[in-house]
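dude i think i finally got it to work??
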Amino acid sequence: MKQEADDLFRVLVADDEQAMRQAYADVLAVPCDDPKGADLADLETELFGKDSAEPYGSNLSLTVCRQGDEALAAVRQACSKGQPYSVAFLDVRMPPGPSGVEVASEIRAIDPDINLVLVTGYSDVDPRKISEIVPPAEKLFYVTKPFHRMDLQQFAAALTNKWAAERDLQEAHRELMRNYVKLESAHHELVDAKHRAEAASRAKSEFLANMSHEFRTPLNAIMGFGEIFRNETLGPLGCDKYREYAQDIVEGGSRLLQIINDILDLSDIEAEKMVLNESGFSVRTVFDRVLADLRNAADASGVRLEAGMDAGLPELWTDERRLNQILVNLLSNAIRFTPSGGTVSLTAHQDAAGDIEISLRDNGVGMCPAHVETALEPFGQVDGGFDRKHEGLGLGLPLSRSLTDRLGGTLCLESELGAGTTVTLRFPGHTVVADHRLHEGQLPG
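look at this
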């Protein structure tokens, strides 16, 4: 199979003696156009002795030159084609042209990466002086004649492999730098995108907060007048239909106000403007209040409410009103998505780690596990037949999770289609309560 040009390692030889040029070609196992001189055998014996070596290999391309000027032209041409030499063997004395040292200095200016080997049969050239003329020292080598055939082969192989490894390292470095530049650019783009997204989020939160405040003022007036009509505060309406319409106004206004409050709370959490009013309180007190508030809604839907907790459950130290809001949202959802005859249970206990765990379970319609994350996103509504029959913007679950996070707890939702849903809240237990009281300057009782 023919050797591809890009797979070849190129070696340059410059020597004014024809016999020496042929000797290089024979030693490196590469064909040479120069005819073999009659005295080549004796010269090879003088230079390399009688030892022999295996051919260097077919991946070597040899260029032989008679004078230094030819070598310089060959190096320029090779570099212009993108096919540089890995190593150049230069005779120190090549009359009548420039010396090997002078040629080496000019070659180094053309190709900084080439390995240069100065070869001479004389001892009048100081290697230290040459290294000052042709730096760097790690790419400059000095060999005296005579030398053995195998030494030359191994020297050429070692320098070629060194050159190839250095080129691979340089290319790897360039590739690394290219990737670094790309990553830097991508990083700046991501930072800019993050800043734009944060600015957009702040603008959205401010808009929602302003919109919610603007909605609440007229809505409170509507609900207030609706209650006046419903309660006939200023006198009888004289028509049952008017009383029904007044009730619809109050109930519709209450639902709309709850949606507005939820949007406002989400906006405050995203804008980090929500302020907590922490205190120590009993979980049982919150349970009793929530169950009392939602008992009528459960009875109207034919859903049974159950509750239970460990005896001696320690107090929580957090925002009681916000925990009440979380449980109302979760319990309302459970009642709404549990068919008549179903059960919703609310429990609390302290685990071995001292954390307080509050769980809400229902045997309602549930959802596919793959849809859980969607249900926890703001305005995310899981597509399905049953939930399409119910009102809501999908704010209850995401608001509950955001509020729980804000309180320092965690919310976990597990659900199975047709088998119900379990929501678990986990809060720090009595040790955290004590820490908070001490921090507030209060001694635990």
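The two ends are 91 Å apart (CA to CA).
im so relieved honestly
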